[in-house]
From TrEMBL:
This is Tripartite-type tricarboxylate transporter receptor subunit TctC. InterPro entries: BUG (IPR005064), Bug_dom1 (IPR042100). SUPFAM superfamilies: Periplasmic binding protein-like II (SSF53850). It holds the Pfam family TctC. It comes from the Bacteria. Residues 1-19 form the signal peptide. Keywords: Receptor, Signal. Belongs to the UPF0065 (bug) family.
Length: 325
């Protein structure tokens, strides 16, 4: 018994010493479960830069591991050594893969440590330039008159635009024909060309098209109106009558389950410093994102938020019968 207690004390002492020295000796890797160059990759690279200073100048590198609706990259982190040197930056997909992906090789709510929500990216409901409606009220009239004939584009099964479209159809109690594409770019190209009627996608992708008047914009998916000059006059879908309609593409940071508490605290403290970095905030605003400042930047708030999001999206995805694998 004494031998066991001695071994336990020794292990605790080693863990404490490791946590005190963290980070040192090697770079921290942030796994991004999407290809390089996309919106989530850009958020991760901005965050990596902002984390370096509060983490003592350690190198923070990006590891792109795309595939299977973000589950391949997330699984890599779930299996990683829980030492604080392998992290995951994922978006809303963290709350949808449990339903979208069959035989998921990890459990979102129990195989990760939560380090805080990073930002929210609003979404916009847009239409082809030839759309007759000029206001959201006119659009709802058009939708009612064209039931069964409406083509609703998205950037692929499980994408943010797909999820937004599913929620919109549910809220409107109107069936539309989903038209999936391999990414947002081809979907917007066909929207501009009139091959599809509607698209719901993040401001990161839609703002340039709205500004150049290549598409028509009708509403935003946030609880409050946006303050940016380009989008400030667009109503929210909530004020337009769709109660509790809210979709943002949020990003959160995670570590493998079992990462020492002292390491987690250092990481969360660094995240909170990074979120106040003026340069990081400016870069996020340039992406159309709003940096998180609420209780979700704390691990407990982050975990509760993800659980609520899973509960929100699971019945919608199941009802639609869609899967990402």
């Amino acid at each position: 018994m004494k031998h066991l207690l001695a071994l336990t004390a020794m292990a605790l002492a080693c863990t404490a010493a490791f946590a005190q020295d963290y980070p040192s000796g090697k770079p921290i890797s942030i796994v991004v479960p999407f290809s390089a160059g996309g919106p989530t990759d850009r958020v991760a690279r901005d965050l990596a830069e902002a984390l370096r200073k509060p983490l003592g100048g350690v190198s923070v590198v990006i590891d792109n591991v795309p595939g299977a609706g973000s589950s391949i990259g997330a699984a890599k982190v779930a299996r990683a050594n829980p030492d604080g040197y392998t992290l995951l930056l994922n978006h809303i997909g963290m709350s949808t893969v449990p339903t979208l992906v069959r035989n998921l090789p990890f459990k979102v709510e129990s195989d990760f440590e939560y380090l805080g929500i990073i930002n929210d990216v609003p979404m916009t409901l847009i239409a082809k330039p030839s759309m007759q409606a000029n206001t959201y009220a006119e659009l709802t009239t058009w939708i009612a008159a064209n039931k069964g004939k409406i083509n609703l584009g998205n950037a692929g099964v499980g994408s943010a635009s797909h999820l937004c479209g599913l929620l919109y159809q549910t809220a409107m109690k109107t069936e539309m024909t989903p038209v999936p594409y391999k990414g947002t770019a081809p979907a917007i190209t066909d929207l501009i060309g009139g091959q599809i009627d509607l698209l719901c996608d993040q401001t990161t992708n839609t703002s340039p098209q709205i500004e150049s008047k290549k598409v028509k914009a009708y509403a935003v998916t946030t609880p409050k109106r946006l303050t940016t000059p380009l989008l400030k006059d667009l109503p929210t879908l909530q004020e337009a009558g769709l109660k509790d309609f809210q979709v943002t593409i949020w990003h959160g940071l995670y570590a493998p389950k079992g990462t020492p508490p002292a390491v987690l605290k250092k990481l969360n403290d660094a995240v909170k410093v990074a979120l106040k970095d003026p340069d990081f905030i400016k870069k996020q605003e340039g992406l159309g994102a709003v940096v998180a400042t609420d209780g979700r930047i704390e691990p407990a708030g982050h975990k509760k938020f993800v659980a609520d999001e899973i509960a929100k999206w699971s019945p919608i995805i199941k009802a639609a019968g869609v899967y990402a694998d």
